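User: Can you recover a sequence for this backbone? Please restate the input before giving your answer.

Assistant: Of course. Working from this structure:
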């Protein structure tokens, strides 16, 4: 790759002015076997650069235990092979509608640690993580023949805090670890955000979806010199469970993109291709203007109404953007790559084995604890999954309301083995009172940790207590089931025949495929849970919508028999039909 520098008025490569026409593509949301196709799609749209975040929690599940950090380097190699530049946004906080904004739950749950500040314990953790991560980035910088031209310091920090000394620490750490590429920050185009999130001597960029001239005028009040760049042009948006599907008119979005380019600015499409939050890694937001309201969990699909859709197909927005970008690209644009293979024919899964949630917990769960008050997920080492809390209501006593304080996020409640209802943060009290003596079990599920706003980093589980009338119930037994426990397989689970009626639990079976390729999985009649095919976690399904099926990348499937696991976390329709694979 050519040498790349940042000048007073623009970007330069080999002594000539260049414009970054970039698009976000998250390597961790695309099956590795499909990276090449997606990069070729971006090139065909007219882009010369790719941007990606790096989610810390995906790669360091426990302190000092690293998992496939090499994927970052392999992706950057793929970017270079595609003849494109790369912008890397390593965080440590990334937002990205990703679980906990990319920070490990074990870190934000660590007592005494203040994330996203100059807190010494936090910075020590960041330093150790960057020491490992930057081995994948530093050798792949443009001044060493690689594709990396920009490295971002933190992410939208001005939307969160004002500790610019923290940003200085991060910038110094990046430099100390060998980052010679230009550093940048990105924030909303508002005075308080740019004041809190930018650094002297570091390229400042802005994020917005429209009104480019106004945004760049605001940036110029803070930075008289330096290239203009929109680091996140929000050309679509994300969806929440229980909400609607967000769309943006392609012609209107193309007009907003044209305005950015007419300002002489560089741009990064957020997103060019969104992909999928496989593995239950989707995050959550808090509603309201101050992002402090009701929980709004993000769906598994990260399609984002992007120009390249979740399945890697060009959309009308792709065609409109291509027309706009063609005017800013020397020479003709590359043609579209051949489309990925698509499932040859519909196929129905046969689920022949079943184990109750209690049996799955016994086989794959962590150790049980007995504490006076309920421990939160972080204390039990649970990142994504659920915790069973069990407590005794003393007796004899008359029926009283049973409620939970500080519930995050959803609990299916059983009283003496019988399902008694579902509790949420908004409705934390059972409809029917409970008499003593009774055994109460609450299967509490995390719906995704908050990834943006002042409540970022909040714990999961029962964060207050379990109340019978006004009395706290003490002596709580808790045991967690983390989704990572399924990575080793389910051989230890004692499967039997499925029950006569649809019930929560782990279902095991197979689906026979003829013509392996991209597919979508439908689970009609089921309420909420997770699905694995051949050990690959497709993510959460939920009848709340708007998402109605799960994307199955073609490389996950194989000709013939494929193993399927369905973890149902609540009751579904009694006559729920078998899951079925359909061509995309």
């Amino acid at each position: 790759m050519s040498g790349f520098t940042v000048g007073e008025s623009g970007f330069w490569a080999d002594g000539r002015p260049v414009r970054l026409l970039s698009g976000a593509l998250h390597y961790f949301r695309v099956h590795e076997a499909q990276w090449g196709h997606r990069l070729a799609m971006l090139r065909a749209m007219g882009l010369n650069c790719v941007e990606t975040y790096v989610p810390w929690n995906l790669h360091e599940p426990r302190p000092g235990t690293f998992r496939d950090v090499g994927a970052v380097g392999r992706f950057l190699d793929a970017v270079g092979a595609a003849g494109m530049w790369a912008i890397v946004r390593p965080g440590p906080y990334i937002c990205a509608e990703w679980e906990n904004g990319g920070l490990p739950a074990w870190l934000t749950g660590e007592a005494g640690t203040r994330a996203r500040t100059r807190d010494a314990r936090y910075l020590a953790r960041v330093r150790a993580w960057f020491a490992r991560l930057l081995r994948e980035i530093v050798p792949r910088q443009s001044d060493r023949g690689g594709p990396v031209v920009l490295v971002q310091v933190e992410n939208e920090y001005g939307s969160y805090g004002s500790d610019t000394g923290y940003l200085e620490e991060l910038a110094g750490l990046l430099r100390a670890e060998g980052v010679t590429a230009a550093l940048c920050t990105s924030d909303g185009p508002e005075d308080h955000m740019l004041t809190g999130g930018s650094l002297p001597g570091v390229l400042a960029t802005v994020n917005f979806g429209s009104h480019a001239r106004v945004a760049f005028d605001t940036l110029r009040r803070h930075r008289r010199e330096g290239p203009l760049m929109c680091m996140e042009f929000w050309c679509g948006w994300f969806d929440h469970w229980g909400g609607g599907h967000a769309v943006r008119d392609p012609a209107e979005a193309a007009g907003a993109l044209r305005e950015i380019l007419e300002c002489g600015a560089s741009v990064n499409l957020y997103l060019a291709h969104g992909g999928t939050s496989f593995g239950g890694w989707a995050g959550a937001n808090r509603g309201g203007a101050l992002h402090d309201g009701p929980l709004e969990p993000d769906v598994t699909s990260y399609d984002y109404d992007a120009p390249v859709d979740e399945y890697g197909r060009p959309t009308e927005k792709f065609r409109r953007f291509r027309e706009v970008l063609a005017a800013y690209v020397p020479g003709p644009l590359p043609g579209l790559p051949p489309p990925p293979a698509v499932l040859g024919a519909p196929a129905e899964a046969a689920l022949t084995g079943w184990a109750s949630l209690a049996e799955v917990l016994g086989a794959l769960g962590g150790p049980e604890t007995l504490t006076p008050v309920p421990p939160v997920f972080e204390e039990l080492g649970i990142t994504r999954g659920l915790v069973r809390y069990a407590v005794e209501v003393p007796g004899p006593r008359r029926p009283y309301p049973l409620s939970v304080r500080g519930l995050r996020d959803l609990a299916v409640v059983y009283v003496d083995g019988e399902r008694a209802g579902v509790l949420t943060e908004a409705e934390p009290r059972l409809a029917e009172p409970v008499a003593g003596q009774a055994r109460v079990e609450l299967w509490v599920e995390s719906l995704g940790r908050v990834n943006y706003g002042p409540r970022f980093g909040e714990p999961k589980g029962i964060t207050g207590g379990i109340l019978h009338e006004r009395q706290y119930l003490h002596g709580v037994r808790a045991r967690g089931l983390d989704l990572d426990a399924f990575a080793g397989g389910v051989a230890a689970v004692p499967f039997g025949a499925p029950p006569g009626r649809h019930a929560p639990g782990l279902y095991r079976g197979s689906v026979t495929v003829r013509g392996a390729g991209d597919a979508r999985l439908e689970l009609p009649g089921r309420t909420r849970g997770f699905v694995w095919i051949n050990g690959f976690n497709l993510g959460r399904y939920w009848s709340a919508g708007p998402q109605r099926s799960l994307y199955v990348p073609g490389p996950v499937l194989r000709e013939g028999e494929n193993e399927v696991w369905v973890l149902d976390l609540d009751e579904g329709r009694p006559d729920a039909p078998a899951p079925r694979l359909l061509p995309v």
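That completes the design. The first strand starts at residue 4 and ends at 6.
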